[in-house]
Amino acid sequence: MYSTFLIALREGLEAALIIGILVAYLVRSNQRKALPNLWAGVAIAITASLAFGAFLTFTSTQLSEAGEQIFAGTTSLVAVILVTYMVFWMKRMARGLKNELQSKVEDAIPLGKIALISASFFAVAREGLETALFIFSNFKTISTDSSPVIGLVLGLAAAVGLGIAIYKQSIKINLGKFFTITGIALIVIAGGVLSYAVHEFQEFGALPGEDAYAWNWVNANPTITTLLSGTVGISTTISWLQLVIWAAYLTFTLRAYLAPKKAVLVNS
């Protein structure tokens, strides 16, 4: 529940802020007539994200055991790569994101309806498709009860509520700190997804060491199992290879993410 809530909150708020920036620009520039086109692009992006998630779920249920292992491992690995890239991208681009989005909409308006729909679609679809893939992969690492779905719904609801409140200036939050903290959380969750990908490749036989356990709590308390899988994404049964790759990913990625920006020296 915790991991799906954090994913939905972080990614949902990013999408909500993007939509808010686009709407605010059209309102301030007295181009309210273009709002239906913008919302059409947003609706198509959301629909495409839901369809992508449904496609992933349906595909995974139609494969053989070996095929599902490869599919789950591959999608999990791709999800980790995309999420890691997007976390660093947002850190680098956050300050200039508003101007970039406004520039794209400004360029699209003179080109007509389709151009504006496309601009809003691609602005939101990037977040939506990434979220669908990451949520699908994360669901594989956590408990099979209804709590992950509850976390997903609550996270999206909180993201929409915060997005609306920020747009209406009802609340003010330090977005820099928010995205830094949630970025750390996403990296930790991605580490769990990466560990799961390694496990799937081990089961298929593509990687060694499936039975070389770092720990194997056969009779682990279900509460502990749920807590571990729902937060850091690792299981009460984990191989040494999974543990080493998980720890290495977290160590190098978090160090790079939290490294201070280098000052740019200008020669006078």
TrEMBL record:
Topology in the lipid bilayer: Multi-pass membrane protein
Swiss-Prot/TrEMBL keywords: Membrane, Transmembrane, Transmembrane helix
Organism: freshwater metagenome
GO CC terms, sorted: high-affinity iron permease complex
The keyword Protein biosynthesis appears for this protein: no
Transmembrane segments annotated in the record for this chain: 6-26, 38-58, 70-90, 111-129, 149-167, 179-198, 238-258
Keyword Zinc annotated: no
Record's subcellular location: Membrane
Family: Belongs to the oxidase-dependent Fe transporter (OFeT) (TC 9.A.10.1) family.
Coiled-coil zones: none
Molecular function terms from GO: ferrous iron transmembrane transporter activity
Name used for this protein in its record: Unannotated protein
Entry-linked Pfam families: FTR1 (PF03239)
